[in-house]
Every structure is written in C-alpha cells, then in structure tokens.
Amino acid sequence: MIYQASWTAILVFGTFVAVVLGISFYLGSKAKSSHGYYAAHGQIHWFVNGIAFAGDYLSAASFLGICGMIAFYGYDGFLYSIGYLAGWIVALFVIAEPLKRMGKFTFADALDAQFHSRGVKLAAAISTLVVSLFYLIPQMVGAGALVKPLLGFSHLTGVLLVGVVVITIVVTAGMVSTTWVQFIKGSLLVFFCAILTVMILQRGFTVAPEDLQEQRVTVLTAPDGAKKTFVNGVPQGRGPGEGDLQPVGHIRRLPGDVTSTGPLGPFEYFSVLEKSQVEVWRQEPKKLTEKTEAGTAVTTVYRAQLKPGSDLLVPGASPTFKGLRSGDWKAKIDFVSLMLALFAGTASLPHILIRYYTVKDQASARKSTVVGIASIGFFYVLTLYLGFGAMTSGALDVTNSNMAAPLLARTFGELAFAVISAIAFTTVLGTVSGLILAASGAVVHDILANFCKIELHDGAKVTAGKLVAVVVGVLAMILGVAFEKMNVTFLVGWAFNIAASANLPALVMVLFWKGTTKTGVTLSIIVGMLSSLTWVLLSKEAYQHVYGLNPADALAPFSQPGIVTIPLAFVVLVVVSLLTSKKASSEPEPVAVGT
Amino acid sequence: MFIWLLKKNLREARGWCKLWPMSPSSLSSQRNARWGLRLFFLYLFLYAGFIGVNALDPEAMSHPWWGGVNVAIWSGMGLIAAAFGLAVLYLYHAEDDHHEKSGS
Fold it and tell me: Is the ipTM above a cut-off of 0.90?
C-alpha cells in the first residue's frame, strides 16, 4: 500500500525525537565514569528500571509483529505473548538476585565471578555479541519498514535515521540516557496502547457491506532489473489511471444478526467475536509467473475468506502453528521447542541482563523485575485487543502485517496514527540502544580489559565504549539494509534460540551447581551457540528465505532448535565439569562476590 | 578411560544431584532463592500444562468456558495473570540483608 506522509505525523515524530535527544544531551553532561556509562552508577530507581525493562523488551517484534500476527491469523500471535512473558519468571525467580550480587557491568562478570578465567570471559563476550547482532537486525529492518509510511522515506533513509539517532543517544550518555529513553518509550507504549484498547472496546463491532473478494499484486521486473508494481492490473499509485490496495478485514455477521454491537466489555468482546463471522484475507500459496517482452511478472493473489470467529480464537490458524491441528509430530515438537526457547531466552538476553546492574541492590533488582512483569504482561493482554481490532476494522494491508497496529490507529484519526507510529519508532530506538550498549560492554569490558588484559583507565574505558558503540551501530545499519526482505519474527526467533542455548545453561549451573568448572562453562557456551546457530542455518526457513533453495532439502528436521540445543548445552556443561572437576578442585574455593 | 574418569568424578562431585544456590551471600539470599525455585517450578508446571494441552489436545482449547469466552483465551490470560500473581507473592516473601536495607 502507498502511504502518504502527513504533517501531523511528521510534527509528532519530530517532537518525540527532539525530546529523546534533548534528554540524552542533558544526561550526557552528568555521566563521566565507566560505572556511569555502562551501569548508570547503579543508581536508577527500581520503578524507573522496571518500566525501562518494558521499554527494552517490548521491541518491534512484540509491538508490530505480534499485533500483525493476531490481525492476520488470530490467537496464534498471542502464543508469542504468553511465551515472551513466561521468560520473565525465569529472570525473576532464578537469575535476577544472584546476577546482581555477582556481577558489575556485564553478565560475563557473573559467570566468571568464581573462576577468573579468560576462556569464560571470551566465550560469554562472543555469545553476547552474536545474540546482540542477531537481535539488532530485525530492529533495524523494522525501523526501515516504519519510517517508510510515516515520513515517506526509503528503507535506506529509515535505517540511517534510526542508526544516527541511536548512536547519538548511546554515545552521549550510555546507560543513563538509554535507561530514560527506554522508560519514556515503555510508559508511552503501554499508556497509549491502553487508550487504543479502550477506543476499540467503545467502538465494538460493526458489520461491513460486501466489497472486494480478490486483490492481485504484480511485480514486473524489466530485463534491466527495474521493478514496477501493479495492483489489480493497473500501476500502483494515487494518480489517474492508477490503483492501490484496499485496507481489508471486516465483520460480516454478528450474533442476533444486528449490524452493530455498540460498546463492549473486555470479555464480552471475545464472546461476541466467537459467535461472529469474520472476513480474513489469505495469500494464495502459488505465485503466478509470466514471462513477456517487458520482463518477468510475478503475481501474488490475495483472496477473502469467511471464517467463524471461534476458529480465530484458538491456536493453529497460522502457517507457523497449523501443524497443531494435525497429527504431525514434527510440527508439535517445533511448537514445544519454540515455546521452550521463548521461556528460556528472555533471561539470557544480554541487553536485559545488563539492566540488573543499573539498580543499587538485590531488593531493587527484584522490585524492578516485578514492575517489568506487570507492565509487560499488561501490554501483552492488550495485544489481543489491538490485533483483533485491526483484523475486524478494515485497517489491514494484505501485504504488510507489520503495519497492523499503526493502521488500526489510523481508523481512529490521523493524530492517533501519528502518535502510535512515533511510539513504534521510539520502540525501535529503546531496544536498539540497549543492544548496542550490551555489545559495547562485551567488547570493552570483557574482551579488551579482561581477556586481552589491556590496561585502560576509567576515561579510556568510556571512550573505547563510545567508539565500539559507533562501530556496532554502523554494522547494524549495514545489516538492516542487507536483510531488508527478511522476516522479522524469524530473526527474533533465531536470537532467542541462540541466547537460550548459549547463555542459560551456563548461567543456571554457575548459580546452582557447585560442581561447575570453568572448562564446562566455556564449552557449554560454545556448543550451545554453535549448535543452535548451525541448526537454524540448516532449517527450512533459512533454505527458503536466505538461500532461495527448496525448503524440502533442509537438513534440520524441524525449525526451532531449542528443545535439542538447550539440553545439549546442559549435558556438555555437566559432563565436561565432571571430567575436569579434579583440576578445578585444586583451585581456590569459590567465594561469593559482592554484598 | 573416559567412562572411568566420569564415574570417579561423579562420585566425588558432592551435591551434583542437589541443585541449590551455591554461593548465597547471606541467609536471606538463600531463603529468597528457595522461595524463587519453588515458585519457578509451580509456574513451569502451569506453563508446561498449557503447552501440553495445545500440542496434544488442541480441540480442548476451543471449549467455551466462563462468560462465553473459550479455554484458549482464559488460559492464556490466566498464565499472564499467574506470572504477575506469583511475582507479587515472591516480593511479599522475599527478605533483604539488614545492611542492604540501610547501607546503600
């Protein structure tokens, strides 16, 4: 769909960016030491840190991806919400307090607190870098996709804009400004999504008259490589003789054959939807390819389908989870594996873990996690209303599920669209700045200072951190452009699987098993990281979307590796630790570090 | 040789079968960790049950429950609410070191 930039949107967007940068410059004048740069002096209030957790965690995948998936396929997107939130249970009950007690700047500190091993530090730092980079790609791709409709810029300009703003935020004041950007973003996201949900419930459902039953998008690639898009046979555009895709998705029949429900309660909303008939749009599995003198034309056909609401309120309607409704055991294992990776991945994400060092003590770490769980959980409940609201209000664009939430807001007016789009943009800013900071800490603190033993005084550590932040930021921009066509949710799944396989077994065993040795930890991180990475690269999604090969030839038996690679990393740690425990016992007894 | 070494160290590695916080700084940390693990396993049980029903008997999720809303919606929202409920319960039971409360 072609989007027109509006002055309201540009004004709201500009104000958001100006406020965020203003805060960064103000706070930048206060943070001078490395403890200030990487851990905000450990003086962030637990409530602010809790909301910043939400700002850090609710990335573009959560806000845009989940809402879009619910808007397209119903309940299936909510499974991600449930899994993403469940991961916080591991963070609060298992990881938070010991991690705070044992570390200083990075999670490698906590892993290595009792070993003082360069191998552990290097392995932990590399896994931090790998996970951060994989998580950065979908955020940058999401940024490009967002700026395009909002400001009318190209994908490249969108990525560059986000990159420059984020690097400025991170370089000016490090963790202090990053925390406040995430706090502002977290509060705005939850607050405005709550308002949007109230508006959805107040509007209720309305039956829409019959309209289009089919839309065709043809991309014509000329022999010289130039591409042109046609919609239903005419060039895509807003001028005379041109056409554009229509927003789709409507209620076709309501219970009692009424035409409108009026305001609905939060539970009544689902009971009415359950008994309604909803028009949803599905892409035809086969694309039509035609070769002419003008070039190669590939046509994608989208057709309207009438579905009972009850079918959309249970799992298994999307291509990702359709195997749940069949007897296909591989699909079921894939589902269990994904839910395991989401459960175990959260407490292994480096940008989440470093947030525990910004508060003063374990009590604050605990309280801030509870605030995080409350705000994130509340938001995930809202995703159901936002998703189904987009599905039934004629807001959807059949070609881009990522725009479901902003397009839903547009049905309530231009201002709502501008605000939600600007919040979506700050969503990307908040998460990207956290990731860049985590990567910067891993390089400077873990690799340069602790592994390479390069003596850096406090000011040099900050300068080196800023330089690394610029390098990682530029790298993220390049990857964001290179992976433009890549599926965002797929990449996020990668990051969760790698984080859970590489980091969680080592973290849990260091905290809970005294037989753990440094060799066990190092090998567990390496095996977990490499096995999950290799598995994903050999999966059918990678064959199809990355290499353009036949997915049936994929070597990995199912797509999500977590169910194999997480236990594998645990086994490697236990076996190697048992084999090397004699050596370990000759070293000094482990001692608790910190308070 | 490998098996022998493994068996030998397995015997020597005391506490291998008893996973418990290995470096608590104080009694309160130890107590918190115990509470944390109990609540963690309780939630894991609920979460695994939800996944198990979805994987093995997805039909069960479509049954209408209270207020005309189906099992899928109630159980999903219930899991999110349970996470918050258990988190608050943990906060209520958790203790802090004396010096931590007053010192920093």
Answer: no
